[in-house]
Design brief:
The structure holds 2 protein chains of 2 kinds. In chain A, a hairpin with a 2-residue loop joins β4 and β5. Chain A has 9 helices and 12 strands. Chain A is of the alpha/beta class. By secondary structure, chain B is mainly alpha-helical. Helix content of chain B is about 70%, strand content about 5%. In chain B, α3 runs antiparallel to α10. The chains are: A alpha/beta, B mainly alpha.
Chain lengths: ~270, ~300
């Protein structure tokens, strides 16, 4: 595991050497007395789409947030692209990473939130340009061209100058996806990206995610959209009570689940 | 039923508000009484008010009041943001010093702080930079290093910073944590997130109370008359100590304070608009003298 992609080079240059994009071993996390994650094992290969499903409070979102270190883990190990998340291991001891290093790693991981979290004081275009300009310090002209291209791609080329409050939920979420993509991430995290949307707006967001998957983007998706999971996911993980109950290809987990708990959950949501 | 009826624009008789008309009448009478009392009482000395309103001494005092307000608020806002950011920092040393600062400067009267800075020469005739109990690198005469203006600005500004810090802290607290998380997820560090994402949005909440603070500061500058700094009130005091026309000259000062605060209120309206371009605020800033249309 050590230093496979230590120099953090290209987005998908590590696909060949067998390093998983995300690898979790016995990850635990508690909030006070309440243990939200009780030993999670997870593996996402480069180019793979993994859907995390399960009832609310099962720890899916917490697990996702651990991957880009928005949440710390209490025990276990978590690697992204061969690098330990949040820590550096030297001579058998763990050292907390400095802020600069945490930021560098986060910059390579895109995240899309349930509540969009677009910067409310910036237009759609400014939202997308902010991180490439400030974090990567790229040239403004290049960033703007790329940002316009991304807005076109999510079907909002004409809404460059709109503020988030002037956009529908679905449009906001599409801008949020474009914002994450502007950093050319090697991994995309989706935290229930359609849960806050009106039913008729869900489709436009899922379409874009489908397109991303088809292009080979590595994606970790927390979702309640079983149709999307069945169609797009390479693997589905069903979590409940902070543990992985069942995992495997969607054709197995969603169609022919082996665990009673999975069956009763699916019976309610399908 | 008449087919055209439902296409008609509704022309309903609005609800009458006789109570409003009655209260207007009462207020009109009270206003007339007040005007009568102001005009007919010779003690107000309106001719003297008029004579001094634009006198050079008063205008120079007014000018001093204006730049004192600007300097003190500049110190207050910059210091306040700094202290608030320190207070919210994960660094316990910064958090502690920020708390200590607010505790001290908010806990002692401004008047004492102003007097302290003005009399620092008596406490420490010379100020120097160096290693405590060790060698000095540079030193100078206190009264030269902290002139009267400096004492006034320090006294007012450092105290203001303590209050502004609390206002900024409340503003930052009002910004959704999702904004910070989104910035962090994009790889922005603490400082970038604060400066680019959180503070600009906190402005929406910070501006209205800051407007209040500025207006309040304009009037608080009158306290520096205790260290004989010639601002508006002290200028008026100098004049009435000579001609004993106390009330007319206090009226002159009051009129100017009122005039400037009115101008500041207008400025506040435009600032609020600037920091809320999408008009998301629930308390949409109304024009200063806005008619309450649509709710008549």
């Amino acid at each position: 595991m050590d230093g496979a992609a230590a120099d953090g080079t290209a987005a998908d240059g590590t696909a060949a050497d067998g390093t998983p994009m995300v690898l979790a071993e016995n990850v635990r996390r508690s909030f006070g007395q309440h243990e939200v994650l009780r030993g999670i094992d997870l593996r996402v290969e480069p180019g793979e789409v993994l859907c995390l499903i399960g009832p609310s409070g099962s720890g899916k979102t917490t697990m996702l947030r651990c991957v880009n270190h928005l949440e710390k883990i209490d025990s276990g190990r978590l690697w992204v692209d061969g690098e330990l998340v949040g820590y550096r291991e030297q001579r058998g001891r763990l050292y907390e990473l400095r802020e600069r290093e945490v930021c560098r790693r986060r910059a390579d991981i895109g995240m899309v939130f349930q509540r969009f979290n677009l910067f409310a004081h910036m237009t759609a275009l400014e939202n997308i340009m902010e991180a490439p300009l400030r974090v990567r310090r790229e040239k403004r002209s290049e960033v703007e061209e790329r940002a316009r291209g991304l807005l076109d791609r999510v079907g909002l080329g004409s809404r460059c100058d709109a503020y988030p409050s002037q956009l529908s939920g679905g449009q906001q979420q599409r801008v949020a996806i474009a914002r994450a993509l502007a950093m050319r991430p090697k991994l995309m995290l989706f935290d229930e990206p359609t849960s806050a949307l009106d039913p008729e707006l869900v489709g436009e967001v899922l379409d874009i995610m489908r397109g991303l998957a088809a292009e080979g983007m590595t994606m970790l998706v927390v979702t309640h959209e079983m149709g999307f999971a069945r169609e797009v996911a390479d693997a589905v993980v069903f979590m409940d009570g902070g543990v992985v109950v069942e995992s495997g290809p969607p054709s197995q987990v969603l169609v022919d689940p082996q665990q009673e708990r999975t069956r009763s959950f699916l019976a309610k949501v399908l | 039923m008449d087919a055209g009826a439902k296409d008609d624009v509704i022309r309903a008789i609005p609800v009458r508000h006789p109570g409003r008309w009655a209260s207007i009448a009462v207020l009109a009478v009270l206003a007339a009484m007040l005007a009568h009392a102001l005009v007919t009482n010779d003690a107000f000395g309106w001719d003297i008010v008029w004579k001094y309103l634009f006198s050079e001494q008063i205008l120079r005092g007014l000018w001093a009041t204006l730049y004192l307000t600007v300097y003190a608020m500049a110190v207050g806002v910059v210091g306040g943001v700094l202290i608030a950011v320190m207070r919210l920092s994960p660094n316990p040393v910064l958090r502690g010093s920020s708390w200590l600062y607010t505790w001290f400067f908010r806990g002692t009267p401004v008047m004492i702080q102003i007097l302290f800075w003005a009399t620092i020469g008596a406490l420490y005739p010379r100020l120097s930079i160096g290693i405590p109990f060790g060698p000095e690198f540079a030193s100078g005469d206190s009264n030269t290093l902290v002139p009267l203006l400096g004492a006034a600005v320090l006294g007012l500004g450092l105290n203001e910073a303590a209050y502004m810090a609390e206002i900024v802290r409340a503003g930052v607290g009002a910004v959704d944590v999702g904004q910070t998380e989104a910035a962090h997820a994009l790889g922005m560090n603490q400082a970038q997130t604060m400066r680019r994402i959180v503070l600009p949005q906190a402005m929406r909440v910070i501006i209205p109370p800051t407007g209040n603070e500025t207006i309040s500061m304009l009037k608080t500058t009158s306290l520096v008359s205790v260290i004989a700094y010639t601002e508006l009130l002290y200028a008026a005091q100098i004049i009435y100590s000579r001609n004993y026309q106390t009330i007319p000259l206090l009226m002159v000062a009051a009129i100017w304070y009122l005039a400037v605060t009115s101008v500041l209120s207008v400025g506040q309206y435009f600032l609020e608009r600037h920091y809320d371009p999408a008009g998301r605020s629930r308390v949409t800033p109304g024009r200063p003298m806005q008619r309450d249309e649509g709710r008549r």
